[in-house]
Amino acid sequence: MNNSLHRGRFAARQVLDRCANALISAGGVGVILSVVMILVFLLHEVAPLLSAPSLTEQGTSAVPASDSTLLVAEDIGSVGLAFSESGEARFFDLSRDRALLTRSLLYADASVTAATRAALPWGAAALGTEAGELLLVRPEFETTVTQGRRELRPSVRPIVPLLQLAPAGDALLRVALTETDSELAVAAESASGRLYFASWQLDENGLAGSANRVLSLPPGEDPGSSGLLFVDARHRFLVRVTFQGNYTVHDLAPVNNAMPVPRLTSGSLFEAGEQLTAAAVLFGSASFVVASDRGALLQLSPTLQDSGELSLQTLRRFSVPGKAVHHLAADPGSRLFAAVFDDGAIGLFHSTSQRQGWATTGLATDEITASSISNGGGQLLLQDAQGGVTRFSIQAPHADVSARSLFAAVQYEGYRAPIFKWQPATAGATYEAKLSLSPLLWGTLKAAFFTMLFAIPLALSAAIFTGYFMASSMRRKVKPGIELMEAMPTVVLGFLAALWFAPWLDEHLAEALLACLLLPVAVAVSGVLWGLLGNVLRPYVVSGWEPLLLLPVFAGTAALAVFAADLLEQWYLGMSLKDYIYQRWGLDYAQRNALVVGVAMGLAVVPTVFSIAEDALYSVPKQLSDGSLALGASRWQTLRNVVLPTASPGIFSALMIGLGRAVGETMIVVMAAGNTPLMDSNLFSGMRTLSATIALEAPEVALGSSHYRVLIVAALLLFLLTFILNSAAELLRQRLRRRYRAL
């Protein structure tokens, strides 16, 4: 009976063992699959960023306006608008080849000699006439849905009455237009070579009253040869570029200040003999692109140097084949533009990311009279001399993101030099998104570095003393107390760091830094004194409880630091330490900085590193240390030559786990780092990390947008960073174990 009972228990135990083995194996496989699925998800979301911009020809439509001077298309490119030389606005259905609406905007016998449009999806259009008059209108495409069908109701609305900008009979040959939510400005060049500038305030309906100011500037060089006029969105600069590549930049600000003659500067864009063939203003009217007959393609922006001198800054040169560009068309809703080359090839370029996409066509480019990209950026329209419009579908959902824009310094509009910057969006609709991950990666590494700089000496020193020198009775009290710190939520540490420690450190920086310098000295002096007086004091101190003697040393050192800090600032520096650091080294002090983060995150990392390292030291076989001591080695020699090498795999694992914790920490850096994406090594400046950026911006980002996918790239970087660190740590730990296994 006992045998049968024993066999029954054995069988039941085997069943339980198999179940436990299967459950544990399934759990391990499940963890691995979860990690793999996370990686697959991240790669799936990042994959669309790898697709280059592309063009697909969709066919040719007949347009009832072969004499178009300006071509506009609504969001999806199904309805177009052509402004004719006679001053008519002709709407037409591109998908059905039929006219929708024709409206005369000018009087009989009027002739349009110049036309342009603001670089905005809702931008106004400006028409200049042979009589020197200017007309500002706004194309509108009202969309309605009736019984499930989408219907467009196109119209053209005047913004201001017909304005006599130049003297009667002085034809306007070139017009530039820029618009914001509240202002609109126009620049024009007449046949006599004189330049005119006018600006208006816009009401909530987009209408303008009388002009704020109308300026007349002296004639430029080569009247009638202007290839481009440009007015920036702030109405500060007026740029004129001739077909010979010569440019003039007018500073309009002095006219505002009642100075009689505005400042100007001039120069040449191209080499001798090179001709301007095409130009286009980019979205937001902060910069423009020009092309030459020798294949040069430049993005330019007027700027004011530190010395106060005007200049036309070359933001970037695009790498293109050495062939002439016949037409440039800019997307009114992004910084994407299309270039039509003399061999029929069409290139898509994004100014910020410098991404390119190419399509080969059989178009006769010398017959193209007008080009346009639809308001929504999905269609490229090219009109020929016979009135036919060839449509191309544009696929460029994430053209603004590239490896260059994510990790290299980028020359943004309005900046004098390439920079690393993370600022994905602002309230301005025309803002150039800055999606560089380099400041976030730098901030992550910076936070981890200062965290480990604080945590490693503290945690390892405590682990060595607790695991090797401390009395067992004291160890049973100290170790659980330190490990209990790990249970404190990091959000609480971040809260305390941001609302208590950071303001305190701001007011007592000198005291804190002096205490950090004096404490090691005080401990070293205490050790020397203990070595001299140890024989006298040792009978009165329980073995292993010596650290309690350091408590009054710590208190005295803190008091000395407070006293010395006052002397340092008042008598030696003559100013606060923060002011001295700024004046001596140019380092700004931010209240929430890397020092605050290092201390706060260090307190979160110390328990982890301490616990694992202490266990590794305490687990070293007793016979190894006893044998070393028996051979005459001191305790320090035994620690250095026997205990530490044997425990090194565990200590290294502790450091790597702590580093992984520091790299991935979120709440402390969100609350205490200042969230300023800077790239500097200043201990007293803030930073922004990958994890904090994901936590702050992911809940509000538009799903599927470039910003969303760049955040996924940040998550992938964080995943790979921790994975590589942990994998390298495990490989090195195994190597250390094999090396010291003989001990």
From TrEMBL:
Domain ABC transmembrane type-1: 441-729
SUPFAM superfamilies noted in UniProt: MetI-like (SSF161098), Thermostable phytase (3-phytase) (SSF50956)
Cellular compartments per GO CC: plasma membrane
Record key words, sorted: Membrane, Transmembrane, Transmembrane helix, Transport
Classification via Pfam families: BPD_transp_1
Subcellular location(s) per record: Cell membrane
Membrane-protein topology: Multi-pass membrane protein
Family the entry assigns: Belongs to the binding-protein-dependent transport system permease family.
Protein name as annotated: Phosphate ABC transporter permease
Species in which this protein is naturally found: Parahalioglobus pacificus
